[in-house]
Write a structure and sequence with these properties.
Belongs to the iron/ascorbate-dependent oxidoreductase family. By secondary structure, the protein is α+β, with helices and mostly antiparallel strands. The protein has helices at residues 11-25, 29-35, 62-65, 79-85, 92-105, 109-121, 132-154, 161-164, 234-239, 284-297; strands at residues 2-4, 41-44, 69-75, 167-178, 188-193, 199-204, 210-214, 217-220, 228-232, 249-252, 259-267, 274-276, 279-282. The protein contains ten helices and 13 strands. The strands form three sheets. A seven-stranded antiparallel sheet has the order 1-9-6-11-4-3-2. The protein has a four-stranded antiparallel sheet with strand order 5-10-7-8, with no helix packed on it. It binds 2-oxoglutaric acid (AKG) and fe (ii) ion (FE2).
Length: 318
């Protein structure tokens, strides 16, 4: 995990994103659920989604595993699709207005008029021609390419690895709200995990709660204005043959304050086979499939150990 300064993302873009996120999350649960339809996906209780965007099943004790968060998932390669179908579908607020208009036009007046009022109440009527998410996505893509090219050079990746190990069209944004939690000592915003990505880039507000596991203890990742946090993920660990390690981190919840963070996650190309001496060759899809099975059967992600060549194998003794 490392911190980025001078990343070139304008401060007012970050501020505006966070303000809009607060407004969106302040709407009713039902409204949010109805608002975000494919490809933007609203989720709550777990950030673990399948590749097709549905919440992953997490085994029998789902209730106890619930994370104290909600969010929406924005696949960046689909934002141009919005643009193509409807030039208004470019930002948070625009997505809203378009959804409301469409449904009013579809004859279901009353609920969507109520929705319209709800939108107006939080100030989303004006200024609907901005594209905050797309703009932020463009910055994240630029930063991801810069970070990856430095690492690829360091690791002597030649084509095709240097080309296929990072595929920016796979990038997506996650906008999270961690809710205030009266039982903050018994719940997690996100439980300890490693990211499955090549790497992830986070922007957090000033509330704090992110922690990283370092030298056998949990360390707070203090919020610092205008900085981004980069987490190296599982794919990076495998492709670097453990030279770079996927960082274990978690998010605590706060009894008094809600927290907003925005994550960007990027993956290898769909057909990229990750090859290194310590791991069996695998694609990101293989990794996800294994993770889904583990979530259902073991109740948690096992991740990279499943793909290690030196993985211990159990033999039954007669
Ligand atoms: O909200 C944060 O700061 C961290 C989010 C995170 O770890 C994740 O989405 O994987
Ligand atoms: Fe994470």
């Amino acid at each position: 995990m490392f911190r980025l300064v001078n990343h070139g993302v304008p401060r007012n873009l970050l501020t505006q994103l966070h303000e809009d996120a607060h407004k969106i999350f302040s709407l009713s649960f039902e409204y949010k659920q109805g608002l975000f339809t494919s490809p933007i996906l609203y989720f709550w209780g777990s950030p673990a989604l399948t590749m097709s965007g549905n919440a992953k099943q997490t085994g029998p004790c789902v209730k106890d595993n619930l994370n104290w968060l909600e969010g929406f998932n924005v696949p960046l390669n689909k934002t141009s699709q919005f643009q193509y179908e409807d030039p208004l579908l470019e930002s948070f607020r625009v997505i809203w207005l378009a959804a409301a208009t469409q449904r009013v036009g579809g004859g279901r007046m009353s609920p969507w008029l109520r929705g319209g009022k709800e939108l107006a109440a939080v100030g989303f009527e004006d200024d609907c021609n901005r594209s905050l998410l797309q703009e932020y996505g463009r910055h994240q893509t630029r930063i991801a390419e810069t970070i990856f090219s430095t690492i690829a050079e360091e690791l002597n990746f030649l084509p095709p690895k240097s080309k296929s190990y990072l595929s920016t069209p796979t990038g997506f944004l996650r906008v999270y709200r961690y809710l205030r939690c009266p039982m903050a000592d018994q719940r997690w915003g996100i439980n300890a995990h490693t990211d499955s990505s090549v790497f992830s880039i986070l922007h957090q507000d000033q509330v704090g709660g992110l922690q990283v596991y370092k030298n056998n203890k949990w360390v707070d990742v203090k919020p610092i204005h205008d900085t981004l946090i980069v987490n190296l993920g599982d794919m990076m660990q495998a492709m670097s043959n453990d030279n770079y390690v996927s960082v274990t981190h978690r998010v605590k919840v706060n009894r008094h304050k809600e927290r907003i963070s925005i994550g960007y996650f990027v993956f290898p190309a769909e057909d990229a086979v990750i090859e290194s001496s310590k791991y069996k060759p695998f694609t990101y899809a293989d990794f996800q499939a294994e993770k889904e099975v583990d979530l259902k059967t073991v109740g948690k992600k096992i991740g990279l150990p499943r793909f290690r060549k030196d993985r211990p194998v159990c033999h039954w003794l007669d």
